[in-house]
Write a structure and sequence with these properties.
The protein is mainly beta. The chain has no helices and eleven strands. The strands form two sheets. Strands 2, 4, 5, 6, 9, 10 and 11 form a seven-stranded mixed sheet that branches. Strand 7 and strand 8 (77-82) form a beta hairpin. It is globular, with a radius of gyration of 13 Å.
């Protein structure tokens, strides 16, 4: 199983970024995917979830209405569109899935929201 995040960077408050997570090594379309972030200030924080088919999504209250999760099963990629970014969104963002009870993580991509 391999998960590779990309798309992070420096953005001004109010700006947007789209993160991607390219997955391989498992039957991508059979498993849910999540985005989780870590910052020194808040620790590990679950951000969003999407089911295997992309039919059901969930968001943390802190990002609801600003972030959108989606997936392309043909491309085995999950996305996180982030808008109206705030300084408190600064974190390393990881994608995650669980297969047969085992959690898998990528190495993360850093998002810095600062003027």
């Amino acid at each position: 199983v391999q998960l590779v995040e990309s798309g992070g960077g420096l953005v001004q408050p109010g700006g947007s970024l789209r993160l991607s997570c390219a997955a391989s090594g498992f039957t991508f379309g059979s498993y849910y995917m999540s985005w989780v972030r870590h910052s020194p200030a808040k620790g590990l924080e679950w951000v969003s979830y999407i089911d295997h088919a992309g039919a059901s999504t969930r968001y943390a209250d802190s990002v609801k209405g600003r972030f959108t999760i989606s997936r392309d099963n043909a491309m085995t990629t999950v996305y996180l569109q982030m808008s109206s970014l705030k300084p408190e969104d600064t974190a390393v963002y990881y994608c995650n899935t669980k297969i047969y009870g085992v959690d898998y993580w990528g190495k993360g991509t850093l998002v810095t929201v600062s003027s």
